[in-house]
Batch of 2 targets.
Target 1
Amino acid sequence: MIRIALLVAGKDLRIERRSRVLLWQVLPFGVTALVLCGLALGPLHAGNSSAAPGLFYLVMLLVALLMINRAQVIEGSPGTRASVATLGLDPAGVFLGKALALAVELWLTGVVVLAGSVLFLHTALSGTLSALPSVVVTLAALAAAGTLYGALSGGGQGPATLLPMLSLPAFAPLLIAGERSFSDALHGGSLWRWWVISLVALAAYLAIGILLYGVLEES
Amino acid sequence: MPSADLADLTPVPAPVTKRRGRGRTIGVLVVLALAVLALLSQGLLHSLNYFDTIDQAMSARAKLGTETIRLEGVVKPHTIDRTSNGASFWMTGGHGEEVFVSAHGSPPQLFQADIPVVVEGHFTSATSKDFYGTQILVKHTASYIAAHPKRVKAPNGSTR
Amino acid sequence: MIKTLSQRLLGPVTLVLLALTFWLGLWVTPPDKVQGNLARLLYVHPAIAWVALYVSFGTAAIASALYLWKRTRSVVMDRVAYCAMEVSTVFIILTLITGSIWGRPTWGVWWAWDARLTSTAILGLFELAYLALRRANDDPDLRARRCAVFAIIAAINVPIIHFSVDWWNTLHQGATVFTENGNLLVHGIMLWTLFISLFAFTLLFFWLLRARYRLEVLRATRYDVALDEALAQRRREGVH
């Protein structure tokens, strides 16, 4: 399972690296969304805002939606699914691999958006750094949930519009946990409590994915 | 120019796939159960509380300072003073701790003595027990008792 | 015989019980000591929420799980899950509306971001998403599998909603009937009316579910017939 996961993750990341979509489309989109958040807050509230952690995760949710759709588009070209199915790969391994690739992409984007948050929203650097463990886990949970919902929405009518509808209610607890632990980190509070919730969500989504991804893919 | 290994189109045998046993399903279900248990442990999700009770706020008084919070307590009878733009009253916690609240904005219809309320606002200074409220919410309980109890018969036939 | 009788009586009995609930709730029961006439919402809101969260969503989740389990997989389970989910969506919207109507005069606000309200709203969003997912796929088998998986994931929310008032401090009142220490805090006829309302709305659910299920079967039959007709027409065109 792990071997297949690494294989699939490597394949997905190679496609991303060669197509440069992450670099030239997704990252600029993340920074643009963050700047727009700053504008929406207005000049008086944009700096050192208590809303910064929430806005960071909101931007990351939008970025995640883009990336999940993109991952579906890669698989969507005619015949791809059928030919992958004939390989007889373990669906749990495929799920883990896709989630891992998405997590790596989200982590990379997350670093850039966090830097943007320090720059534009004046988020304290030390607090941001101490929030990193929770950001890493929350984004990984987002990737696991996203991969599952991507498989649910793919292939039907209007997958690009269906995905947000399906996944955003499920992302809500991650948004809450991520925002709270980031806020706690900025105010020097205890980090572990919300960090644990993100970790639990990650474990739960990985478990559901391993168990049910095969049901979604089988034909 | 395709590389040599791509050009080789000799059929290869299908890869051997291991049959996925029951072990994994059970393992996954255990992880799920543990995740649910971890979430169920109450302390973990404490910060999802909509309000702090007076006791909770008092035990964390130094840390709270003048931060904006929601504070819950029961309105002490005979202390309500309605003003043109709000109301002031004493609020009692579960262990008898009292806080003086002066709130802006008109209180809800049900606001009265002896009723639990949640007040959104902040303490006026880092050590004071005076609370400045911007909104009063009434938190009614789950008990439903007739306004004129004598008219209601209990299931066993007695009036109360 | 008994089956036909119960099927025939389901509708009329539901209507009679609903009428009884409204008569008791509006005329017979006394106003509450604290809430006055507002307490009459006790005979509507909890019953609607009970149907939305436990009865109908529960039916949908169990039917979905049975569909996913290969031994019990059948088109009936898929249809029951879908129809129950649709009824649940209507009831959850009504739960939020009646709750809001109750909240404004008692709490003083239409909406509060407390754990019970927020988790209920999120379940409502899950249900809308389920219906969207249902419409997005034409292949019946794929659609059924995807919707079943989605319903199972959404079901995690139900225990969270149920226990939210015990786990956290919420503005929403604690449990009315299933209290932690088992003490009912509703008096006399008010309690009986509450129970009758719970029963009446549960029957209403089964009535609606049955009607919706029949409609779904008709729709499926109609689809097959239309396909056959279209094929026949095509063949006739080929002859000329």
Target 2
Amino acid sequence: MPPLLEVSNLTTHIRTRRGVVRAVDGVSFTLEEGETLGLVGESGCGKSMTGLSVMGLLPRGGSIVGDSSVRLGGRELVGLPESDLRRVRGNEIAMVFQDPMSALDPTKTIGHQVAESVLLHRGGTRAEAADRAAEVLGLVGLPHPRERLGDYPHQLSGGLRQRVLIAMALVNEPKVLIADEPTTALDVTIQAQILDLLADLRARLRMAMILITHDMGVTAGHTDRVNVMYAGRIAESAGTGPLFRAMRHPYTQSLLASVPRLDRGPTGQLPTIPGLPPDLTDPPSGCRFAARCQYATDRCRTAEPELTGPATHRYACWHPTDGPRPAEPVDTPMDVEVVLPAQAAAVASAAVAERPVLEARDLVREFPVRGSWLPGRERRVVHALSGVSLTIGHGETLGIVGESGCGKTTLGRLLVGLDRPDSGTVTLDGTDLGRLRGRELRQRRRDLQMMFQDPFSSLDPRMRVGSILREPLQIQGLGTTSEQRERVAELLAEVGLPAHAADLYPHEFSGGQRQRVGLARALALTPKLIVADEPVSALDVSVRAQVLNLMRGLQVSHGLSYVVISHDLAVVRYLADRIGVMYLGRMVEVGSADDIHLRAAHPYTAGLLKAVPVPDPDVERAKHGAGVRGELPSPLAPPSGCRFRTRCPLAQDLCALEEPTPRLFATGHTAACHFPLQTPLPDASPALTGDPA
Amino acid sequence: MSTLDSPLDSPPDSPSDSPATPAPELAAPGRRRFSMPAFLHNRRALVGLVLIAVVAAFCFLGPLLYRTDQVTVRLDLADLPPGAANPLGTDASGYDVLGRLMTGGRSSLELGLAVAVTTTVIGTLYGAVAGYLGGFVDALMMRVIDVFLAVPTIVLLLMMVSMFTPTLWGIILLLSLLSWLGAARLVRGEVLTLRTREFVQAARMMGGTGRRIVLRHLVPNAAGVVIVSGTFTVADSILTLSALSFLGLGLPPPHADWGTMLSAGLNSLYDGYWWQVYPAAGLLIVTVVAFNLVGDAVHDALDVRLDQP
């Protein structure tokens, strides 16, 4: 019996202005009934294009060439006329897209959109289609599906929208489901719920699934077999267990090694993959990974390796490795101490003993909802921050984590003075930022800088990098023109960019290089504190490691303090000395990185940690159930008492009545919970959540 | 190259961490943001530029080579068909049509360019300030625009030219007053999205003043739409002047412009005097199309997003 889906020698070319991009270049794999195949790799490696090629949904200028073959149940799909392909799409093969906001039509009800596919492929009356839609929406976990058929996409949360997308894909019970980064746009807690849902549905409907993802943790937990793709080709193909335990391709090895791990302590330098993937308009001869590979020899640069090895574990490499990279000496915890012991020791004590760099007290920020002036309508307010206090010591890194909508970005903006609190104070070295105005405030800004998330929008596209880096110096009136130029060269060297980068425009850089420029700009004024809002979430894994290493190194050499805001707990774990966990405008737990990760006291922290996928199949398989149930309640009307109680497995009546006060669990470790997971220290009740006692 | 690498990026104990940014990944230095090759690669741009150059040379250099009397009315020479003495014939007042096209084109081009420049400058600054400040100020500034927009352009123009004797600069002033509104609204819309971009916040973080942010960051980034609207303004103003002239309220004789020539020529079209209509109409169309072509091309050449694959 032939496999359900058999792809052989799939080659997809895309014509662009710069030439023909060989997006997929001779990819072969099979997919059996009921199996989940992972396609992993960095962006631009051809994994999404492989999925789209199977569906026959190519972008403009794209075509499947050569002797490519895609067989579904023995039937050839390549070369099938469009009208026949339409009968296959959405019926036998369905796709779940990444962005639930743009994949749903905002002007049609969700019932209509789910039923549309039924009408197209199965016919029948509208009422029957609506029945089927309600049934499937119930299947994917939409509460009260029948009443919600008339809802529009904007009335649903991100997680529910993703469920609707899955329902649309499943409504005709396809044999193959292609999920292209189905959870990348979602919070970890929702991600865990959606992935569990997909696994459950796959088992119940006996579907086969292709899971396209860049997240090694998701791969580890939710695939049976994995194809690692690099530059349009399959680099390695193996069962999930063998791949993670005994990978043979150096690319797989480096990819896994460069992921910051939640389940390991803060290691020193993260191993990185140097350079960038090759340009696919003109792929190099020989092994495509050779230019970035530490084992590469002349043979790799001239001859291209074929996929070899046993049928269950194939790899394309002349010098296959043997399993994961051995634990490196840098894996010893607290490498910073090894680099500069004196400084690191100072870090630990300074936070407690000295006056902190920045201190925030009882920050409250509320945003009125538009239209509130209309008569007869209640004035509604988004409670973005409701009394958050924290302190940051000299040379310390404070990580802020939480789901989107918990107020962490608002907090970051208040800390650097981009926004003013409704009440509460931010004190920088004893100066109340809220009292500063005009010129004084502008001068004071040099001590507080920000590193932004999006490397594409954080640099002015019309300025050369040299001007971008000089601008802060010009504004603050520091130095003469030639001194400023010298400083720019210095900054570029510091972030590992060549001097001629100053003459280039931002669009000529890759995402990782742009983040380096952003960091250089933040450093230009030698600030005391840098607030980094999701500094690496827009970057690929290998580049992410480079930027994280750089941030850490610069902190040691400049004695910087960081506030790192991220939804990625592993990134925060890697960078932060102390971590604050936020939930719906409140700081629910603060403690050292180890306190939070090993001895979490708040049920929310524990759930959040559990939801983070770890790139280890054994750990992932052992998990049961999602970490945190349900979704974040609306910040327009936060729950009474403990705000987390609606999703808390331990909640009791007391939680709804009384707001928990922060309790001390160890030095510098506080959590606000009535029923904590750890035993609090007796009669110790710190006044403020943020105080490192 | 490797000498510039931060030592932190390539620790000696880990051989895999070779230079984080190998040289070949960066483009050669000195590449301009506005790339002339990309601009010229665009056929529309080339065609538009050549057409504008030809029309401008015809209007401003032409009279030096081809001298005609455009002041004295010579009824004895009226309505002559094209011939050796008058390559494009003469009009009802006996003026040489070819020569009149040159002088008429001069006032048309001067008006178009002058109005485009003034409205673009005023509109851009007004729109950028409104968009950047936002809130109440923005609302107020936009209501001012709405008031101006509520004034019917042609009616106001007709009133003004019937009250005062129109001069070229008078009409330029009037048209400028009326047509900066579009540019202002365009720029404001662009700035509203630009000001949420992170590089604007970064400039605030450095202590940049609002003035600096508007002039250094917002205006240059809104330039794409402004330039396009500017080139359209050139075309629109030439057409408005033609419309006024056509209604008989344009520049008084002996001044000439293409619109006046058209309206005069139309009267004698039934007499078969085609040379009094088609050359002027053709030049008008060519000029307007040429400016629109260039506008589109400049927009494309300035658009950063198009550079990304």
